[in-house]
Amino acid sequence: MNGEPFASAPHVVGKSALTGSPSEIPAEESLCPVVSHDWVNSEYKHLAVEASPKALSVTPGQFFNLLCPSPDVGELFFRRPQSVYRIDRARGRIEFLYKCVGRGTRGLATLRRGDDLNMVGPLGVGFKLDPGWRHIVVLGRGVGIATLGPISQLARERHVGVTAILSARNRDFVMADALFREAGDVVSVLDTDGTSAVENVECLLQDLIAKGQADAFFTCGSNRLFQLMKRLGRAHNIPGQVAMEQVMACGLGPCYVCVRAFEVSGKQELRRVCIDGPVFDMQEAVGW
Ligand SMILES: Cc1cc2nc3c(=O)[nH]c(=O)nc-3n(C[C@H](O)[C@H](O)[C@H](O)COP(=O)(O)OP(=O)(O)OC[C@H]3O[C@@H](n4cnc5c(N)ncnc54)[C@H](O)[C@@H]3O)c2cc1C
Ligand code: FES
């Protein structure tokens, strides 16, 4: 490319014109130095960056659109959305837990300590925690486990009990066990021993409902687990929220790549996952 910089080179190409406090700026583009970046298992990496004040104002369930370096000689045009896995305000850090699946995440995986990560965000509508709830249940699988980290952190800070049901192929993929243990109880369910079967997860949820430990449901990462929580939520009148991982391009609203159908008061409604979500009312979402 004759020394021409790639669009995916880590240059700041714009920043919010507003100069007020971080809360007044809707989202900004920032260069965040990588402080650690390690493999968690054969497919997932854990990435921690030093975040700007605006980036640190991220709330659980929100995401950043990351400019991933190209992993090869080609160009990488679009940013890749990643929700925040942990917010460490005391140390000024934001952490991501991501699966390497394609060119974007393979490029992201090449970042080393000291490199800058170009992030746009925080973006989207995140989870809500009702002050009346005493105990919540989070149910995640795969990359969805990462998305549920911050809401569990927030619940712990607000003295709300958390039961985390983490579903995975095998023990190696039960990630973030420690983070969820800090927040409350953790139940791992695996494909290898059959405990991840929907019927078994249903028994676990019914048990929590019977014990009065399910004031609200939160889920991400599996359509069949989402459908299960939605059904039980409807039957027992338990409010629920689902974080959706829809393919995105701009992440900001104008391109309409991320539109999905929802069911609101018996009518179909189209919504953009990037700005109307990615977190939605469980009873309005129809799954994927
Ligand atoms: C709001 C949001 C939060 C997310 N948070 C996380 C997270 O915390 N951790 C994590 O590992 N992943 C997360 N994802 C998924 C992540 O964005 C994709 O894995 C990533 O964009 C894939 O890029 P790629 O270039 O590596 O793969 P590509 O080559 O683009 O695609 C490889 C495979 O991944 C699938 N894919 C591509 N984009 C998405 C997408 N947006 N969502 C789901 N599957 C996709 C493709 O269908 C394909 O099968 C999130 C997605 C969204 C929308
Ligand atoms: S990703 Fe462009 S509108 Fe949602």
Structural write-up:
- With 288 residues, the protein is an alpha/beta fold.
- It has eight helices and 15 strands.
- The strands form three sheets. The chain has a seven-stranded antiparallel sheet with strand order 4-3-7-1-2-6-5. The protein has a six-stranded mixed sheet with strand order 10-9-8-11-12-15, sandwiched between helices.
- The chain is globular and about 55 Å long.
- The termini are far apart.
- Bound molecules: flavin-adenine dinucleotide and FE2/S2 (inorganic) cluster.
- The site of FE2/S2 (inorganic) cluster has 12 residues, from loops.
- Flavin-adenine dinucleotide binds next to strand 4, strand 6, helix 2 and helix 3.
Defining key terms:
single chain, 288 residues, alpha/beta, 7-stranded antiparallel β-sheet, 6-stranded mixed β-sheet, 8 helices, disordered N terminus, binds flavin-adenine dinucleotide, binds FE2/S2 (inorganic) cluster
Mean pLDDT rating:
90
Anisotropy-based shape: globular
N-to-C CA distance = 40 Å
Number of helices: 8
> H/E series, N to C?
EEHEEEEHEEHHEHEHEHEEEHE
The helix-and-strand class reads alpha/beta
Amount of beta strand: 25-35%
Question: Biggest sheet, open or closed, and with what strands and sense?
Answer: 7 strands, antiparallel
Low-confidence stretches: 1-20
Taking all Cα atoms into account, the compactness measure Rg is: 19 Å
Which cofactor or ligand species appear? flavin-adenine dinucleotide, FE2/S2 (inorganic) cluster
Strand order of the largest sheet: 4-3-7-1-2-6-5
Number of distinct beta strands: 15
Q: What percentage of residues falls in helices of 4 or more residues?
A: 10-25%
